[in-house]
């Protein structure tokens, strides 16, 4: 197929052709970036948490007025919760991975005299059953021993006195954090420092445990501490049971806790999955809106191509008739319009690639987004070519059906 | 004459109903998608108190010093975002602004007198008496408390109409007693409907958007005396002594502060006062203070989710594509009508008449697109509630100015799209055009 006649025809419709090219370019650029944004969101939504997600339920209570004996109350609560049928493990916790409700974080130092922290890690603490309740997988070392645990208020008091003996001595880290702090070495037995050169020895490494929030500081930079919390420390109770039992266990747990001490209100009661869904609600909503906008863009562009192609076909009926009368086949006419669309789309896509790159640069500098991977460019080009060919097919077939006799008819 | 052009436009549009529908629907589509995104964006970036936001300021003081700044990886080298207790109380004592209030979030439980009812967890703030005129709190019954009440740590409370409905069945409860965390408080005021979003007076503790409106305001000093702990964020660069009292003695930051300064010169004076204040209190380092007005403060705190901004850009892109599309179609349509224009010009129509005719046609398409786009925008804003988290979706609502903008944008856009083809069409030389036919 000779493209010269097509180009010379297009030259007579410069502005219209330019507008179509511009439309394809904008669509291409926006779709590339929007698909990339969706990918980013979904990647976040699917982050692994490291815990037994479908087997956990959470209850958080708020006390009215001062709590007389929080530790005794916590012990009673835990014992009562363990007796609920179906419950396998119970622990108080301060925070859960990828869940709303805030987090506790600290700067990790590798040497006692270090000024700037190496990473900002999050601290998980709760009680002696934390690792088993959350379903964490130890890949090296061991879980804490009973004599390593310290109550939170004791630890805070010791910290304040500057008495290092009253503090916990050991810590469990995630594999990702161990890799970051001591690349290529075993983390077991290594020492990390917190605050004013307070040392902690690593005794265990878990495969994975995401942080609750602030994911930009390193999704997997988490630590677990042998610190016992009481109900007054703002802790939640987390119960582990079989997935189908969750609703029943949650209901029974709330009823039992209210029965034990009616002078408190339930602040949070949900399954882990519900918390995780709530945490990512924004990301999912955003992805949904973007999908809608992309669909709308593609539909509008396709309609634009259909409209303009139909228009040109109508305008050139006589010319088509003459060509057919001079011996052009239907296939020739069909291919003429398909090639014309292909040319326009190619110009548009070329421009669109540049635009997509520019938009990505802009988003990178203003919204801290990563660079658009190269694979998006050929994929976007292919999508736009396909869209153009599909959209032009109808008008092109109509053009191919113009009978040669049109040439002899006067309008 | 206009009626004639309208008639011509209708005839012309009727000649190609498919194309007309396509143009109208594209405009409608583009307008509605971008306006929906825009309404969400405005809802979350909106100025919650437009009539006085330029007079409200948030003072910041560096109480941690340059050493702490160095060790803070997130810091922009500005002072911390909140105040510690000592500085907040000292600023209140100096009382240099027209109106000012220190505040911190509280979350006590309210125990209804009726024993059959369950305790209610509330959220609120401990504030000074000037808080109410400062942020223009509307009252249904009663009013705020007096400066003397601040002074004497009076057990008084201002409650929301929602809490009033829960506890007092919505009656005028001014003067009645309310049990809050085991102590009795006298209700002095019931607020009217008031739920500013973002929660501009305490961005540091709320992150900007609260799930629920605030139920309860207590006097700051009273709340401190009653040991009502801080229900918001606390940031420390040292380990505070145990308990709430230890927190008050520390340089941990947990108190938000807002002042009203009516003129630029008042703001300058206050800033130099702050510098003096910082120099006296922290003689070891050069004073590092900021005094941002509310719009700057909201921006500084990144209260607008960047998600929404990116989605606005993409929706704007959609609008542009739709307009380009319509422009292309209008162009093709108008350029094909040169013979018609030739006839009209030969019969004596001036160029202005051609312009009037074609722009009328363009405006009609824009208007039709705008009206349909308006309906679609309504649908879009309603359905935002299905996909966006409720706390943001609640804020996105239709209002008159949004509707007017929708219509205006679509008409202007389509007239602009019609302008180039019209100017081309109006240049047609009548004789040449008639001859070639």
Largest sheet of chain A: 6 strands, mixed, barrel
Would you report the number of β strands of chain B?
Answer: 12
Helix % of chain A is 40-55%
Q: Round the mean pLDDT of chain A to the nearest integer and report it.
A: 86
Strand content of chain B: 5-15%
Brief characterization of the structure:
The complex is a heterodimer of chains A (411) and B (437). In chain A, 50% of the residues lie in helices and 18% in strands. Chain A is built from twelve helices and twelve strands.
Notable traits:
heterodimer, A: 411 residues, alpha+beta, 2 domains, 6-stranded mixed barrel, 4-stranded antiparallel sheet, 12 helices, 12 strands, elongated, B: 437 residues, 12-stranded mixed sheet, 18 helices, 13% strand
Explain the layout of strands and helices.
The complex is a heterodimer of chains A (411) and B (437).
Chain A (H helix, E strand, L loop, with lengths): L3 H8 L2 H32 L10 E8 L6 H13 L4 E7 L11 E5 L9 E8 L3 H5 L3 E4 L8 E2 H10 L8 E5 H7 L9 E4 L3 E9 L15 E7 L7 E6 L4 H15 L3 E8 H8 L1 H35 L1 H9 L4 H38 L8 H25 L11
Helix pairs in contact in A: 2-9, 2-11, 2-12, 3-7, 9-12, 11-12
Chain B lengths: L1 H14 L1 H29 L10 E6 L3 H7 L13 H10 L4 E8 L2 E3 L8 E2 L2 E4 L3 H4 L4 E4 L4 H6 L3 E4 L1 H8 L8 E4 L2 E9 L11 H4 L9 E4 H6 L17 H7 L6 E5 L3 H18 L7 E5 H7 L5 H30 L2 H9 L4 H37 L2 H4 L6 H27 L3 H7 L1
Parallel strand pairs in B: 5-10, 7-9
Antiparallel strand pairs in B: 1-11, 1-12, 2-5, 2-11, 3-4, 3-8, 6-9, 7-10, 8-9
What does this structure look like?
The complex is a heterodimer of chains A (411) and B (437). Chain A is an alpha+beta fold and 411 residues long. Chain A has 2 domains: 4-45 and 282-407, no CATH class; 53-272, no CATH class. Chain A is built from 12 helices and 12 strands. Chain A has a 6-stranded mixed β-barrel. In chain A, a hairpin with a 3-residue loop joins strand 8 and strand 9 (198-206). In chain B, 54% of the residues lie in helices and 13% in strands. In chain B, 44% of the residues are buried. In chain B, strands 1, 2, 3, 4, 5, 6, 7, 8, 9, 10, 11 and 12 form a 12-stranded mixed sheet that branches. Chain B folds into 2 domains: 2-47 and 305-436, no CATH class; 63-287, no CATH class. By secondary structure, chain B is an alpha+beta fold. Chain B is elongated, with a radius of gyration of 30 Å. In chain B, a hairpin with a 2-residue loop joins strand 8 (177-180) and strand 9. The interface between A and B is large, with 56 and 53 residues.
């Amino acid at each position: 197929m000779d493209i010269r006649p097509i180009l010379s025809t297009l030259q007579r419709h410069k502005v219209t052709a330019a507008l179509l090219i511009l439309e394809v370019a904008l669509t291409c650029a926006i779709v590339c970036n929007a698909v990339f944004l969706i990918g980013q969101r979904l990647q976040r939504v699917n982050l692994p948490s490291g815990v037994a997600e479908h087997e956990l339920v959470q209850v958080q209570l708020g006390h009215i007025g001062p709590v007389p004996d929080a530790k005794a109350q916590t012990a009673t609560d835990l014992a009562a919760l363990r007796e609920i049928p179906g419950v396998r493990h119970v622990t108080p916790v301060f925070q859960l991975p990828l869940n709303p409700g805030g987090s506790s974080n600290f700067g990790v130092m590798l040497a006692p005299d270090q000024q700037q922290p190496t990473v900002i890690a999050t601290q998980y603490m709760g009680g002696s059953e934390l690792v088993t309740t959350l379903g964490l997988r130890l890949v090296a070392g061991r879980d804490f021993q009973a004599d390593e645990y310290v109550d939170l208020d004791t630890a805070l008091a010791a910290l304040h006195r500057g008495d290092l003996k009253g503090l916990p001595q050991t810590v469990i880290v995630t594999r990702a954090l161990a890799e970051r702090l001591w690349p290529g070495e075993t983390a077991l037995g290594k020492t990390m420092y917190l605050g004013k050169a307070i040392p902690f020895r690593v005794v265990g490494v878990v495969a994975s445990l995401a942080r609750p929030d602030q994911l930009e500081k390193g999704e997997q930079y988490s630590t677990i501490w042998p610190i016992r919390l009481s109900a007054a420390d703002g802790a939640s109770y987390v119960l582990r049971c079989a997935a189908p039992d969750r609703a029943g266990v949650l209901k029974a747990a709330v009823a039992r806790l209210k029965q034990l001490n009616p002078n408190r209100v339930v602040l949070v009661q949900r399954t882990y999955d519900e918390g995780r869904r709530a945490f990512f609600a924004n990301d999912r909503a955003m992805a949904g809106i973007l999908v809608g906008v992309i669909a709308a863009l593609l539909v509008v562009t396709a309609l634009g191509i259909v409209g303009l192609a139909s228009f040109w076909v109508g305008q050139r009926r006589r010319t088509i008739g003459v060509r057919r009368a001079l011996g052009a086949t239907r296939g020739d006419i069909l291919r003429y319009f398909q090639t014309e669309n292909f040319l326009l789309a190619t110009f548009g896509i070329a421009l669109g690639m540049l635009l997509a790159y520019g938009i990505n640069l802009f988003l990178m500098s203003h919204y801290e987004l990563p660079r658009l991977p190269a694979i998006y460019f050929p994929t976007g080009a292919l999508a736009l070519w396909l869209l153009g060919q599909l959209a032009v097919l109808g008008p092109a077939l109509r053009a191919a059906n113009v009978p040669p006799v049109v040439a002899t008819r006067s309008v | 004459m206009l009626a004639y052009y309208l008639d011509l436009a209708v005839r012309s549009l009727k000649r190609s109903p498919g194309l007309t529908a396509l143009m109208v629907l594209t405009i409608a589509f583009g307008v509605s998608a971008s306006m929906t995104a825009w309404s969400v964006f405005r809802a979350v970036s909106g100025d919650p108190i437009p009539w006085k936001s330029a007079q409200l300021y948030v003072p910041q003081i560096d109480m941690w010093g340059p050493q702490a700044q160095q060790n803070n990886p997130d810091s922009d080298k500005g002072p911390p975002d909140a105040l510690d207790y000592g500085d907040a109380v000292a600023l209140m004592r100096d009382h240099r602004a027209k109106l000012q209030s220190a505040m911190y979030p509280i979350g006590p439980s309210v125990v209804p007198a009726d024993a059959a009812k369950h305790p209610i967890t509330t959220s609120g703030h401990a504030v000074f008496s000037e808080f109410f005129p400062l942020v223009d709190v509307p009252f249904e019954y009663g009013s705020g408390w007096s400066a003397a009440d601040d002074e004497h740590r009076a057990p008084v409370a201002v409650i929301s109409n929602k809490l009033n409905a829960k506890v007092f069945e919505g009656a005028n409860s001014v003067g009645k007693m309310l049990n809050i965390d085991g102590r009795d408080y006298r209700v002095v005021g019931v607020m009217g409907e008031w739920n500013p979003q973002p929660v501009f007076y305490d961005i540091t503790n709320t992150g900007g958007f609260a799930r629920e409106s605030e139920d309860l305001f207590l006097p700051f000093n009273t709340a401190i005396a009653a040991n009502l702990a801080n229900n918001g964020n606390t940031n420390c660069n040292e380990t505070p002594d145990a308990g709430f009292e230890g927190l008050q003695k520390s340089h941990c930051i947990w108190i938000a502060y807002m002042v009203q300064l009516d003129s630029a010169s008042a703001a300058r004076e206050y800033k130099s006062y702050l510098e003096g204040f910082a120099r006296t209190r922290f003689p070891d380092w050069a004073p590092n203070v900021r005094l941002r007005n509310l719009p700057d403060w909201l921006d500084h705190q990144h209260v607008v989710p960047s998600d929404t901004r990116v989605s606005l850009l993409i929706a704007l892109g959609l609008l542009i594509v739709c307009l380009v599309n319509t422009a292309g179609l209008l162009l093709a349509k108008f350029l094909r009508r040169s013979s018609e224009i030739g006839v009209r010009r030969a019969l004596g129509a001036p160029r202005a008449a051609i312009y009037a005719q074609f722009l009328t046609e363009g405006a009609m398409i824009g208007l039709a697109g705008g009206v349909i786009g308006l309906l679609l925008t309504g649908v879009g804003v309603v359905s935002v509630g299905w996909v966006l988290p409720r706390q943001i979706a609640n804020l996105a609502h239709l209002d008159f100015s949004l509707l007017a903008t929708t219509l205006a944008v679509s008409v202007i856009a389509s007239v602009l799209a019609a302008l180039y083809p019209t100017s081309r069409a109006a240049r047609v030389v009548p004789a040449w055009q008639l001859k070639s036919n």
